[in-house]
Predict the 3D structure of the following.
Amino acid sequence: MQLSLRQLFLRHQAQTSPAPMALEVVSAEGIYLYGANEEQWMDMISGISVSNVGHRHPHVLKAINEQLEKYMHLMVYGEYILSPQVLLAQKLVGIFPPLDSVYFVNSGTEAIEGAIKLSRRVTGRSKIFSFKDAYHGSTTGALSLMSSDYFTSPFEPLLPHVHHLNPGDFSVLEFIDHDTAAVFVEIIRGEAGAEPVDSEFLQALRLRCTETEHSSLRMKFKQVLEEQEISLLAWEKESFLTYLSWRREWEAGCRSVLL
Ligand SMILES: Cc1ncc(COP(=O)(O)O)c(C=O)c1O
């Protein structure tokens, strides 16, 4: 008996939860997903924001097709000189002036792992701080930065010397000291319900990190693009305009804190 795609999925593909959404998608265009039986779904998730310019955007398709005509994967990042990588690095350092070098990875959680390792290696320090109710990814180092038992309890013990602070509580800043390798802060905490961290607290945090930082290491800012984009799709026009003005202020605030 020939198994359906759904049966094969359930039988052979590891699922992320006991109740996967299991939408059987045959194509996607713009904000819509299409199913085998002519179903049309508005995509409010956008690949958790990875596809946030819409599915099969013509500019993205054009760029991918042009690259496919030349070469695909050749070598790990940072070995060969490959124009897409070099030009993207140049663009990114133009957006974030304190940074002048980019290390490419495949996922958010790898970025966190890289930042943990880099901070420990460069400073020779081991203490790391992060904030409660943040989400940083699913690898062991990133999990260690998270405070929720829901994510961490099956995998303990995790990394030592990691401490979780309450965001917005100025009294915790004194814990950040000259043994601290890094502070990880999610500026909008997704797991707390898309909760922005108070900008005065962020400025005080920046100051404390500057006072205690090793050479020119910068604390790493992260933002929950996913939650923002989902909200953006779901909100009505009025909320959307309020959101846009809030986001502009928020971005300007972050930029001034970062610099
Ligand atoms: C704030 C934040 N950090 C890190 C991650 C991990 O990224 P990835 O799933 O690409 O490993 C996510 C993923 O949702 C995230 O929302």
